[in-house]
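ping. complex inputs:
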Amino acid sequence: MNEAAPPPPSLGRLFWVFFVMGATSLGGGVVGYLRTGLVVRQRWLDDVAFVELLSISQTLPGLNATNMSILVGDRLRGGMGALVATLGMCLPGATLMTGAAFAYDVGGDDPWSKAFLHGIAAGAVGLIVVVMVQLGAKVLKEFADYVFVLATAGAVALFHVPVPYALLVAGAVAIWWHRPRDRDIK
Amino acid sequence: MKDLWDIAGVFAYLSLLTVGGGMAAFPELKELTVNTYHWVTFPELLHFYSLGQLAPGPNMMMVASIGAVVAHIPGALVALVAFFLPTGLLTFGVGRLWTHLATWRWRPAIQTGLGSVAVGLVLAGAIIMAHGAVTDAFYAVLATVVFVLLWRTSINPAYPIVASGLIGMAMHYFSLN
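pong. complex structure:
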């Protein structure tokens, strides 16, 4: 499993490195922080392995950041490694957002905090659209793909089709559309 | 106690919808937490979601906020475990099988097919979110400016989002005068 690379880190070290990334990866874009931390600084992975694990993370459901923590942790230190890496990655943000719920309970009705939150919600819409455009640039290749995007979005946002049905039906059609063909000349 | 079971069920279910990222689960997140269980109002959900974009680490840590609103610290813990355990186990298992799947001929089809559906779900999430957050032309301009800025530059998203919040406060200041 492990290449004859540097010896795997201790569980404590693994937790600490993921904890630091979990605490400092402000403003999304965790993937960039993960690459800097794991490939450049710690040299636990090379770029080939990083991209391979990232493509698994992106294919499977779940967030990229936690999926990557699980895969990297498992590769370096097995099941316990996966667990401590994920805990380290989640602990700072989870603590902050739990705290945010209590702070909101105290100050959420204040018109100034409401005005601030209204502003960041509008800003977050801009962020989500960027995420969508970047994701789309990677995966949308032909006209049919854009049809799948619009059909899925329209069904869910305009016709209130529950997401699991949309996911199963549109997913099945899209996968069938891209099915492996014997005379594949891609 | 029933609350904790409800939280576990809701977030375990939402976890399975996060193909292509957390935003894909947003339409069902709104449906369940706002319309079905009335844990939060739609504006509250938007507030937690946007705050979550500012928090470090994985971008869906706001599930802890909703858990905490419903059932304090135990609620936050249950929401987190429920949201990360099912997909976590799946990733762990598939990660170990991956070398066998790498040459599976359906794998590119699944990757590309689910990719476009995931983009569609993110778009749906953005539309639903914009309904609540983009309340007038001013906020539409604000969202567009943030979009263009993040699309065209490699600035850390936290800055324009915090700036949007300050602009929201400035609007409030002017509306008082």
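The first helix of chain A runs from residue 11 to 24.
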